[in-house]
Amino acid sequence: MAMRSLKPRGLLDRSPGADLFRHTLAQIPSQFGRLMYLSSLRDPNTGAYRHYGLQSAFGRDQSAAALRTSHIRAFREWLKLEFPEKHADLLAYLDTIEDPKGLVVKYWLESQGYTGCVPDSASKADRALYLEDIHRLLMTVSRWSGVSSPAPTETRRR
What we know:
By secondary structure, this protein is mainly alpha-helical. Helices cover 66% and strands 0% of the residues. The chain is built from nine helices and no strands.
């Protein structure tokens, strides 16, 4: 009689994608945070994905494929969120950054650095939807940040 494993099947999965999710992505509390993280692992000069830990454990090709697949999945999952969910998710991500939200959002709007989150394989329609939604969200947060900060004249009145 064969011995059955006491571990659930998911814990036995040692694929690069499962490893990436279990040890890294599951620790990131927002979908947008996962998207930002995964896009940061893509070399802006070559489009190649690199992650030292995954590469050491699984090799360059397997780790790059897992990163690419995870980036596409994170992008699609973020696109599927309703606009209010995207707003809440973006705010959750911004809460993890030490710098003031207004400063971060202002820089993003000026630099358009958020365009780097789009996977290379994204369709034109998905790219357009992402860019439209993220711009609207950033404008909303920007207006909200501007309203919540005291005006210079208010701080002088005492």
